[in-house]
Amino acid sequence: MYRRFWLCCGIDGCRDSLRWLRRGVLARRPDAVLFAGGLLTPSTQRSTRATPWSLSLGDCRFAAQFFATLGKLKVFSAVIPGLSGEPLEDYARLGMQAELEHPTVHIVHATLVEAGGWAVCGLGGPIAEKQLCGMDSLSRVTAEYALRPLRNARPARKVMLLSVPPCGGLGGPDGVSLVGELIDSYHPDLCVVAGSSQRRGIERVGHTLAVNPGRLADGWAAWLDWGCASADRVQFVNLRELDSEATAPSVEEGTAPRSRLRGAEASHPVATEEDIRRRAYLLWEAAGRPPRDGTIFWRQAEQELAGTCR
């Protein structure tokens, strides 16, 4: 049975967060990673589209990097979308593609997954009594319907992931009373909620241990060892300290600094992200604007421009 968990949320489009996620998991070696949403930058405006959906090619590329980071860790990972800027339909499409490419990655939004003696289910996006107009959200009835498999799941232990914190200590003024009611109704053993780093902590909601791990973008995550006594189960980890202790980035985390390039290679011009974006958009248009993952065209543009620069 899984005992050790890496709890996190709130990457918020920050590339440092991906590095911290990887280093934290490699340092602690958990049985499972539980991500409570918050992948893309919350403030990003997505009215100008470069794909057939509401996500830009840059958003799609960052999402692919996130899923690839999890996949390379080869640890069971349960993921839900976040509150804002992550349309559920687009997230589901990208998530399903990630599940095919990375067997250890699982999108558990409104979906029950069983592994290691645990049943995991979650909800991403805003949750309210009635569905909110003009945005992806879940009403009480929809939320209860989506979570109902958790009630009758076979494993003895149950986990709920929520991108909204409950009222009280974990959410404060940003908390939602309905979330507390859902936790109390389905009484999972563990509930991981996405909240602000200032309110990271643990709280008992009836039978459930609720944890707000803080946001990866702020350098925070949480470590949970279910085999420890209740008072010692959760530790909050300052990932900036891990970052400062690291000696050098790995190959997967980035390319070598320019000063390390030798000979003619150092003199070649490098395509900018804007160059790649423009070329990827032209490739997508030339292909007839197909409704598929925009990362395909982004990668093709990168390869073409890399050849041109050489």
Structure notes:
With 310 residues, the chain is of the alpha/beta class. The protein has 2 domains: 4-245, 4-Layer Sandwich (Purple Acid Phosphatase, chain A, domain 2), CATH 3.60.21; 267-309, no CATH class. It has helices spanning 15-28, 57-73, 88-101, 140-151, 177-186, 239-245, 273-286, 295-309; strands spanning 4-8, 32-35, 76-79, 105-107, 113-115, 118-123, 157-162, 190-193, 201-205, 208-212, 220-225, 234-238. A 6-stranded mixed beta sheet has the order 4-3-2-1-11-12. Strand 2, helix 2 (57-73) and strand 3 form a beta-alpha-beta unit. Helix 1 (15-28) runs parallel beside helix 2 and helix 1 (15-28) packs across helix 6 (239-245). It is globular, with a radius of gyration of 20 Å. The N and C termini lie far apart (52 Å).
Write a short abstract of this structure:
The chain is an alpha/beta fold and 310 residues long.
Please supply descriptive tags for the structure shown above.
8 helices; Purple Acid Phosphatase, chain A, domain 2; 6-stranded mixed sheet; 310 residues; alpha/beta
Q: What would the principal axes of the Cα set say about the shape?
A: globular
- Strand residue content: 15-25%
Overall tally of domains: 2
CATH class descriptor name of the largest domain: Alpha Beta
CATH superfamily of the largest domain: Metallo-dependent phosphatases
CATH topology of the largest domain: Purple Acid Phosphatase, chain A, domain 2
Q: Mean pLDDT, as a whole number? A: 82
CATH-scheme architecture of the largest domain = 4-Layer Sandwich
Q: Report on the biggest sheet.
A: 6 strands, mixed
Order of helices and strands: EHEHEHEEEHEHEEEEEHHH
Discrete helix count: 8
Number of strands: 12
In whole angstroms, the N-to-C terminal distance is 52 Å
Report the helical percentage.
25-40%
Walk across the major sheet and give the strand order.
Answer: 4-3-2-1-11-12
Helix-strand category: alpha/beta
Instruction: Using the CA coordinates, give the radius of gyration.
Output: 20 Å
Low-confidence stretches: 45-52, 247-269
